[in-house]
Amino acid sequence: MGLNSKLKSLIFAACSIITIGALAGFASSKQNVKTCKKVSINIDNEYNNYFIGDKEVRDLLTREGDRKLEGLPNQQIDLKNLEKRIEAHSFVKEADVFRGLDGNIQVHVKQNRPIARIIRPDQDVYIDAEGTMLPLSNRYTARVIPITKSASVKPFSSNFFQDSTGQAYLALVLRIEKDEFWKAQLAQMHIDGKGMVSFLPQVGEHTIEFGRPDQLDAKFKKLMVFYKEVLPVMGWDKYKRVNVAFEDQIICE
């Protein structure tokens, strides 16, 4: 490529960048002079959670109605600040606030998803898929597995399910949450003073002694054998306990 050709290419590229920048600036200035006439709110209820509704989101956007967005010029509306306000809500995982071409505000909200309920003497809490503790809600009750612990075990700290010990228990709860059979069958999870896990089932009079929250695949495989091959033959009320804590063993009594 000759020198003139290179120079022409550089000039063309520079002109293109300037043109695009000018168009973007023009579009931005046009948007800023527009007035917000409507706020549209979309809340993602992918997991059928209803912890926050349109009214709560609108209150967060308007500071309980003190500063309505409708009627304000776009240049007076700080979208990032609005996102931060919504994301400060305990049950909001992500918020996206943006302007449409018409100058109106669009709000998309993704909710946190509780996967278990921690039963405590003072006040129960939920935990989400990241192990974060969430408060209960007057608006909605999640149908998730309750977790109890022995009185001798100190209360769970706010980051227990995120530290090296608690992550194993979180992985166990996530495994249950993602499996339709176990999610329906396991009614309660208990952690004793030695950190051993046991379950109470929805159907049957037995207790499931799971042991440490490890070797999840192997233990659930043994439990499935118990439910598919043992109980149909022996009867659902035959055993009071089933233990899958030990390698290559199922103990039924």
Task: Provide a descriptive summary of the structure in words.
The protein has helices at 3-32, 54-62, 79-87, 166-178, 180-185, 216-234; strands spanning 39-44, 92-99, 105-111, 114-118, 125-128, 133-134, 145-149, 186-191, 197-201, 207-211, 241-243, 251-252. 34% of the residues lie in helices and 23% in strands. The model is unreliable at 21-30 (pLDDT under 50). The relative contact order is 0.08. By secondary structure, it is an alpha/beta fold. The strands form 2 sheets. It has a 9-stranded mixed sheet with strand order 6-5-4-7-8-9-10-11-12. Strands 1-3-2 form a 3-stranded mixed sheet, covered by helices on one side. Helix 6 (216-234) links the parallel strand 10 (207-211) and strand 11 (241-243). It folds into 2 domains: 39-111, membrane protein fhac (Ubiquitin-like (UB roll)); 114-252, Cell division protein FtsQ/DivIB (Rossmann fold, 3-Layer(aba) Sandwich), CATH 3.40.50.11690.
